[in-house]
Structures are given as C-alpha cells and as structure tokens.
Amino acid sequence: MKNVNIHDLRVTKPVDIKSLPTRIKVKEDDETIKSKLKEIRHELSEIQDKMYAHNKYSVLICLQGMDTAGKDSLIREVFKEINPRGVVVESFKTPTSTELEHDYLWRHYKALPERGKITVFNRTHYENVLVTRVHPEYILNENIPGIRSVADIPENFWSERMKDMNHFEHHISKSGTIVLKFFLHLSKEEQRQRLLRRLEKEKHNWKFSPGDLEERSLWDGYQKCYEEILNTTSTEKAPWFVIPADDKELARYLVGKIILTELQKYTDIQNPELDDEVKENIKRYKQILSENKD
C-alpha cells in the first residue's frame, strides 16, 4: 500500500491528537485490503510457530480506543490464523474485589504472555490513567493510603503512574517481551454512526448501553488523556502507533502490517537446531518407522 507509510504512524515526537487523521484515503478497495491482510495473517502464523519453538520471546499487543473503535473485530480478523495455543486475549474491565486488594498493575502482570506466545490486551493498563482520570472517584476504590477523597489525589498522581507504566514495559521488554501498542483513533462522528447502527440493527442491540452516551459526553476529556499518554509513554522498546480507525478494514490491515514488520526485525527467531545425535540418526529413525507397519 504505497500511499500509507506505516512508519509515520509510530509516535516518535509530541503529537497534537486533533491533527492526527482518523481516516486515510487509499487506492485499494476493501476486497484488496482483505486479501493483503490474509497474506499477513499467514506470515504472522508462521512467525508465531517459530517463536513457540524458539521459546525466548513473547509478544504483548496493547489495544486502546474509544467505544466502538473496533477492537474486538480487529482481534478476530488479525489473529484468526494463529494456532489457538499461541494467542491469548485478555480484556480488562472494572477491577474485581480481588484485584482491588492488590496494586493496580497486579492483574496486568498476571496476564502477561508466556514465552513463545502472543497476548492481546483488549483495553490495557492504560485504563488506569484514562478512565480513572476522567472519573477520579474510581481511584477511591483502590483504598490507597492518604487518599480518602478526590481532593486528596496529588497533582503528580497521573504522571507518576505513567512513569510506573514505562518502567513496567521496560522491565518486561528486558525479559524478552516485545511490546507494541496501538491507539485506534476514531472520529466523534464515526462513533455516533456506529452507536446508531447498534440501535438500528436488532442483532447488535445488545452491544448498546446508555453508559455509552455518558462516556461520549466526556469525549474531550478522554482525548486530552490519550494525547498525554501518547506523548509520555511511547518509547523505543514499547512504542505507540496511532491507527486511523474510521475505516475498519484499513485499520485491521495497518495493525497486522505493523506487527508483522516489527516481528520480522527479530531475525534470531528461528526453529531450534536439532540435537547432533538426532541429526546423525535421522535415516535410522525413518527406516524404523517405515518398517514398523501395523
């Protein structure tokens, strides 16, 4: 896709979220884009198979975006050809009573991928500087010493949490976890249209909640938080990519292409060499199996 440079989607300098596109015009139609994504899926599957055998790296894919940004369908379409043993999806909703008895990153540490596997965070640890920042009263549920009311939350609370997240990602990357983060950048108008479709199509009614409208009314607050997250936590080892999300087919292709491109940089991910003894005896093993007919 010559008119889309995926490197331009990586956050490497301060961004103004209002100036970032939510839609990119491309020459290819949806069917062509779907075909290209199919090829990408096949290559991702092959890399994951090698990664599983290699057993040194894991991959953490972080997806963030406003309601209706298309996270669920993106996960389904990008990762559908990977062996089920090789990919896990974790969704982080309102913390449970057990999770609230631990620090806010505990449930995310627990969900990190095993070596050789890919884990997708559908909503991520960044909810802890996003939803809780737009709704600071939620912080009171964490029972943090010295914070009895919203007024007690210190001014540097959120910046300190983002530093924690940078340290968290730096730590896991040193242990072999490849971290890639995607912000699905949706326009407010496109969100309106998608919410309307949920109401108009009976089979999608279940997806709609009155709370969607309440959160939509806080759009500007969320956008401000996202901008600070992008500008504060996009690092060399854990970069953010801003994906124009008004076009779902293109968004899926771009995420798939970026993941594939980034993983291809790890040229050491190869199938392990056979043990010398096994190599020397392959002909004998084949002979034994050929002669051992029931």
Number of strands: 5
Helix content estimate: 40-55%
Second CATH tier, the architecture: 3-Layer(aba) Sandwich
Assign the structural class, choosing from mainly alpha, mainly beta, alpha/beta, alpha+beta, or little secondary structure.
Answer: alpha/beta
Distance between the termini: 54 Å
Q: Give me the CATH superfamily.
A: P-loop containing nucleotide triphosphate hydrolases
List the strand order in the largest sheet.
2-3-1-4-5
Radius of gyration, taken over Cα atoms and rounded to an integer in Å = 22 Å
The main pleated sheet reads as:
5 strands, parallel
Helix-strand string: HEHEHEHHEHHHEHHH
- Annotation field: number of helices: 11
Strand content: 5-15%
How would you state the average pLDDT, rounded? 95
**Unreliable residue stretches:** none
